[in-house]
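Why do we care about 3D structure at all? Because function follows from shape, and shape follows, mostly, from sequence. That is the central idea of this module. The next example makes it concrete: a single protein chain, its amino acid sequence, and then its structure expressed as tokens.
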Amino acid sequence: MDGFVRSAVSRLSFALTWIALLAFVVATSRADATESDPQSVQEIVQAIEKTYANVQAIRADFTQTSRSAVMGEQHQKGKVMLKRPRKMRWAFTQPDDRQFVTDGKTMWIWSAHDNQVIVTGDFASQSGDMPQLLDDLSKLDEMFDIVKLPDTPQAHVLSLTPKKQASFKRLELVIEKKKYTLEKVTMTDNMDGVVELAFSQVKLNPELADSSFTFTIPPGAQVIRSDGM
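And the structure:
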């Protein structure tokens, strides 16, 4: 497969996997939070880990803003579904139809505009430790240096820096104080590009069929396989 396409697939899969991880972790944390909100990083992480084990799926709307020196600023909207273990479906609806789907093993990236599907059957190995983290958050503070930034009136703000080499420099989370729902995730990659995702209409533990995390290739679509098959 063309090196540029391979690089794009890698960046997208890494970015959405990490963003999905943090969306899953924080959006599910402490739905029953009291007025006595935790103040330290350790307390927040412990609250996240405690509640996460009880949540198996999430559905939400999102808006995405991407900024880079090459592409400038772009805006997109869509819906996301996440299900343990390791299943994701990002459906971009504006400005055009694009989908990122994985059942935890195979990954499909679909562009209706290009009538093209990029397929890889090696999603788990490409993602390294990320799929494991989707199933086990006990290593969250082992993987990241976590710093609590100044709060806003309504939200906690956390900065996460990978302790090991990764495809990005930093993640920033904006977390609503009372319900502990995730309002925003901002990822800065190694080229200083920024992907910002804001979430709304978050639903916890909806019924999501496993078939929602597979993709049927449309007749006549161009298929590019990242493993060279």
